[in-house]
Amino acid sequence: MYKNKVLHPQLSKFDIYNSAGENYENTITAFKNALEIGTDMLELDCHITQDGHVVVAHDADLNRRTDSEGLISSRKYSDLPLMKKDLPLDFMPGVVFSGTSEDRRFPLLQEVFELFPNTPINIDIKVNNDQLISKVNDLIKHHNREHITVWGNVKDIITQKCYKENPNICLLFSFRRTMTLVALMYTGLLPFIPLKETHLEIFVPSHLVRGIQTYLWVMNTEEDFKMAYEAGAIGVMTDYPSKLRAFLDENPQYLSNGYFIANQLSDNPR
């Protein structure tokens, strides 16, 4: 009833990096640094500009990341400002990343695909926008990335549109579908119901997931890392790839089961 899709045939476990604690989030520099220390997968978020460019950005608006206001969708790509030098971090309120990198611009998804053609990437489609979904799909197909890309969103309407647009791309469970998964387990119907989704971003006990790759976010401490791997997660999404890399080097038993993801949001606090 369920055909498992694996993003990389040589990896059974992975680490996902956003790197927001070590570089300016969602920048080319952040992605490069994460991969240099051994990450196996990147996590990023996408929005669309007024003139139809797919940009890598976590927030729909510019307020937190720049000195400007307004929505990304209301600006042409050429008019997007640089990020602040002192950047408040999304998942850790009150923490600010301050770096020296000059790379503070919003990259295009196309750039990321061109620079990292063989790197598995988890894409969060941040807004319910048909043009955005269509353009992301076109880019994935153009760069022959259907087999190493996961996409979707916590909102079920977005995830369903992603699947309708291209069922060959690995699909995230939305929050609603995750609740359905749990209900099916408790009613005993789970083994008999086909599932189109391939990846979970939250913890569901291993006997629930029928081979579905599961990773947890956002894990930023050694205690978090240990809990995630001992719970059976195949990957950990973190803002501190260097910290997770050191943890895995000291605890190689967690790599024996599998592989590492960069939650590209910044070697400074997040």
End-to-end Cα distance, whole Å, is 42 Å
Number of helices: 8
Strand content: 15-25%
Q: What oligomeric state best describes the polypeptide chains here? A: single chain
Classified by CATH, the class is Alpha Beta
Q: What is the CATH topology descriptor?
A: TIM Barrel
Number of strands: 12
Overall domain count: 1
Radius of gyration, whole Å: 18 Å
| CATH homology superfamily name | Phosphatidylinositol (PI) phosphodiesterase
Please, what is the average pLDDT? 81
Low-confidence stretches: 8-17, 258-270
- H-E order: EHEEEEHEHEHEHEHEHEHE
CATH architecture: Alpha-Beta Barrel
Shape descriptor reads globular
Major pleated sheet: 5 strands, parallel
Helix content: 25-40%
Q: By helix and strand content, what is the structural category?
A: alpha/beta
Record the SSE blueprint.
Layout: E1 14-17, H1 28-36, E2 41-48, E3 54-56, E4 86-88, E5 96-98, H2 109-115, E6 121-125, H3 130-142, E7 149-152, H4 156-165, E8 170-171, H5 175-187, E9 199-200, H6 206-209, E10 213-216, H7 222-230, E11 235-238, H8 241-250, E12 261-262
Parallel strand pairs: 1-11, 2-6, 6-7, 7-8, 9-10, 10-11, 11-12
Antiparallel strand pairs: 2-3, 4-5
Helix pairs in contact: 3-4
Protein name: Glycerophosphodiester phosphodiesterase domain-containing protein 1
Main location: membrane
Subcellular location: Membrane
